[in-house]
Amino acid sequence: MTWPFENNTNGIVKNLAKRNLKSEKRRNIMVVIAVALAAFLVCLSGLTAISITKMKKDRVVDTYEATYVRVSEENLEKLKDVTEFERVGEYYIVGEKESSKGFTGSFAYANNDMMYMMRSQMKLTDGNLPQKENEILVSKIWLSKYYPSAGVGDTVTLDISSFPGDYTISGIVDAPADDSKNLYSFMISKATLQKMNMYKSDGYFAYVHLKNVENMPEETSKAFFTQIAEKNQLRSVRFHSEFFKDMNTDWSQFMIVLGLAGIIGLGAWVVIQSIFRISINDKIKSYGQLRTIGATKKQIIRVVKKERNRLGVIGSIIGITLSVILSLIIFPKGFSISGYLGCILMTIIFCWLTICIAVHKPIKLAAKISPIEAVRFRIEQKSKIHIRKKNKKLTPVSIGMMNFKRDWKKTFSIIFSLSLSGILLLVISSLCLVQSPERLARHYFPNGDYKVFLYSENEHIDTLKNGNPLDEQLKEEILAIDGVSDIIATRKSATFEAVYNNFRGRGHCDMLTSENYGTIEKALVEGDMPKDAHDILITHGYADFGETVKPGMKINLSFGEKSIPVRISGIFDTSTAVVNQGRTGYGFDSGMMYAGEEVFRELLPDIENFDYTWDIVYDKASKKNVEQSLESIIATNSELYLSKASDHAAWVEKQNVHYNIEKFLSWLIFIFGVINLTNTTLSNQLARRQENSVLRSVGLTSKQLAAMTVYEGLGYVLCSIFISLAIGLPISIFACHKFSIEIYGGKIVPYAFPLQEMLIYILVIIGMELFLSIWTIRRQKKQSLIEQMRAME
Fold first, then answer.
1. The pTM is what?
2. 135-139 and 204-210 as β-strands: parallel, antiparallel, unpaired?
3. Domain-by-domain residue ranges, the chain?
4. What cellular-component terms does GO give this entry (predicted)?
5. Which of 646, 538, 628, 633 is nearest to 585 (CA)?
6. pLDDT digits (tens, 9 = 90+) for 135-175
7. Which residues are CB-neighbours of 251 under 8 A, at least 6 positions away?
8. Using only C-alpha atoms, what is the Rg of the chain?
């Protein structure tokens, strides 16, 4: 603002700022890079949190909140008449059927409402759902592999005993498939379903979506679903826990982003302040000359602020633009106008505050200088004068170390900024190793790389009665494989149906044995281990009883024939009790309940063999032969399933979003550290130009000058590496300790040092330091001593 009778100097200040920007191109580039990198990391972290939150909400919004199990056709119509329901989806699982063509089809029936609710997992891309007996909905991947030229209206042959003859393609669905196992999805019509021998009129699943549920408390909606189940005498209601979880904002992600922004801001502040301080020191005489011709302190401040603002705006725009582009590439479905605009606004504020705080001290230095002080100004004018030791030998190494130790404030700021990247990289890389897919797979495969599961399309009890395939004959056949040393029966199981207050729940009940008793006891989170023959354990979060399960609840338990009353004595944590894990990554057949052998014998007295899972122990040297032999044995029996640790690791890597984000973040921090090193090294060499010219004028050779510069730079790098390890290692061990307890259900996994990541980081920053030091000296050699001295005047 210009006051009355005051000269308007805005134009002069603007021109001075422009000239300074033109004369300090190297400084400008370094500041822009520092600001852009900080803006990029902060904005990308925020956009990642926003995108993941939005994708989670989009995945569950307008889908379903509850599922009624084993619903009859009559009850389906009753549910459709409930005015509070927006839609009711019908779903019937037919099962997996093998074709003579070498693929396995996963068959089911679904109505239009169900397909709409499953749109995020299975999207209808062409045509319609099948209506007639000879119509079928096929997978897009299957069609491209077996009938690449076919489309809607064309005829295909499945060559499956349950689905003989030709079928007309009514529609094509984009559904997930397992090409490694040739497993593909198919949808049949209701007319086809009702004519199948295995069809039961009360075998439907009803998926329901409540109107205005987004604005309704979770307890209210669950109470309504329970009330509908009681009113229509439905066997069981299961709540869609992911819906209620994902509809609530996970503030922990945003707290992590804030913490990361604080650390990045701290590093950017150190770098930008160092660059501007060196720039102000170089131009201090120019500011003194401006003061002699009448420039005020405020005008000097305005000149520096205009430079700051220009560089800050350019850096912020570059960083934000790159982060938005990368976020749209990585998370195309996570775009949200309000979320993106909010994140961009917060990033702009963050960058503005960071650069304002960073440039505050250099601005004060430029403003308070007087013309006389500017002439006498020396960068090291506040350092103590030491008495020279006459017997001290000056070498490139000693001079480099003297430069390293001369200004402890600058040395500390450089080492601190470099150490931040090392500490962050060490901590995040260590956390990645804790939850690496291989380590998680080993957690669920403690005895080897292979598990054999009982897997049948028939009712589990019928399979057991007809003769459990996991018998002595199969055991002898597997033990005969060269390299197999033992077989451990880790699970004995039966499918159960439990009734509590007219609510029915289903799942797998595992037998409590002497081998797994200790493991289950450690997994107990509430209550006690069974003391009576009719005491059982149930998994925490079991939601089929219409209310939270707790010790003391009494239920009626059945394995398919008769039922007996039992009491829940305790609750166990599934993440700790790894012995109950199922054959799939989603754990659909995991053990939800534990009961003693007495319960199994009482409910199924005619069955002797309850084996459900075998762990194969083998010699690692014979792994290839063992895997091939197991695959050939399992292929001959359709009621068995071979689960591999490698498949589980691949599934974890695909599903574990946090692991992938942390890996990506570790590489960003790696890049941040390298660019940070480049900025600090170049800015430090700029400050040494005049000294280097003086040393060259008194006879220091180029090799000696390069050696001196290299040793000084190595001092910064080696100190930052030592501090990164000294501070980062305890933090990493503590963080991994807490993280492993959370992931592995209380188990503390041994700490693994990220040797590969840290070794690459150390080698790169040492190599970059050597390269930059030599490169800057070679650039100085291109100028004569007189030119260098004049450039510093």
1. 0.66
2. unpaired
3. 21-60+247-379, 66-239, 396-435+656-793, 446-644
4. plasma membrane
5. 646
6. 999 998 899 888 989 889 999 988 888 888 889 999 999 88
7. none
8. 35
